[in-house]
Design goal:
alpha/beta, Glutaredoxin, about 20% strand, elongated
Amino acid sequence: METLLLNLGWSYLLAKALPYLLMIVIGVFASWIWIRRCEWSSIKRWSMAFLLFVLPFSVYFVVNPIYEGDFSGKVFKINLKNSYTTELQKGLIVLAKVGCPYCLEVTSDLKMLKKRNPKLKIHFLVLNGQQEDLVFYKSALGESSEVISYTNSTLFESEVGVLFPTFLAVKDKVAIQYWTNNDFGAPAKDVLQDLMK
């Protein structure tokens, strides 16, 4: 449901939150109908009503769990200019490393960002990436991002630390803010989308 709402142009935050809210409404409605129509004893009727209330949300949560950073909008302000930021007038730099499962997981989010904003330039920088590692990320990202190997991790470590992946918003050839993987939730994607307009 979230992907459908994103494809319809909804904000990331609303597309993330609305399905959960809808499941709560469905649960309330199902419980209310059950209570009004059921002729069971009071304890059985209320137990079943409670089950009908929590079931839609619970099933949706099992299929689409809420992770720690999904609703995080924490952003870190920086003013970083180096050889990688100056290649982009405006765009997103993603710092990744070889064998990082979270770096691979984020590729679907990057493809959605690119689909929603075709002019967004994304540079996916892989720390100490060999050619076969780059091919692996290139196949996961498709045409949505440029995958680049970089060896000098100190270009970024002093400003943004060493958590992978890390997302840097670049405007006028300067990285102006960044998010760690735990902070790159729906509100952060909305902020990034607004920055890149």
